Amino acid sequence: MVDTHLSRNQNERAQKIILQAMSRARTTLADARRAIDDLRKNEVELDLESTVRAEAERFTTATGIPCELNLEIVSRIPEPIAYHVLKIVSEGLTNIARHAHAKNVSLQLEANNGSLEIVIEDDGSGFDVHQQNKSGHYGLIGMRERARLAGGTLDVVSQPGQGTTLKLRLPL
Description:
5 strands
C-alpha cells in the first residue's frame, strides 16, 4: 500500500500508513515483552483480588474507560487457578481496549462454595462470535484454552452492536 501511494505521489497517505504500522508494531512488541516477562516470573503468592484491581486500574488509566468492579472472594484461590484467572482477565480487558469501542466495562468476580465465576461485560460494538474462529484471532482461543486447562469453561456472548459478555467458571 505504501509503495502504491508513493508511486502516485500520495506521500501524506503513505506516511499515515507507515505511522499506523509503527504504532501496531510497538504495541505488539510491548505485548510480546509482557508475555515473556510473565513466563519468567517466579511463582509467588498471588493475591487475586488485589491483582485484578490493579489490572482494572491499569486498563482504566490506559483507555479512559471506567471499569466497575464487584469482587467477592471468600474462598482461597489456588495459585495455578489464580494465575489463569489473571491472564484471562488481562486478555479480556485488552480485547475490549483494542476492539470494543466501549464506554463502560464491568468486572465481577465471585469465589465461594468451591467455585469461581468471573463476568466481564462491555457496552461496545460487539461481534459475531462464530466469525472469530478464523486465523489471526487468538485472544479468545487462548482464553478458552486457559479456562480448559484450569478445569473450567469460558462462554462468550456477543452480537454486533450489543456489547460482549465473557463468563468464566472454574472449580476450586
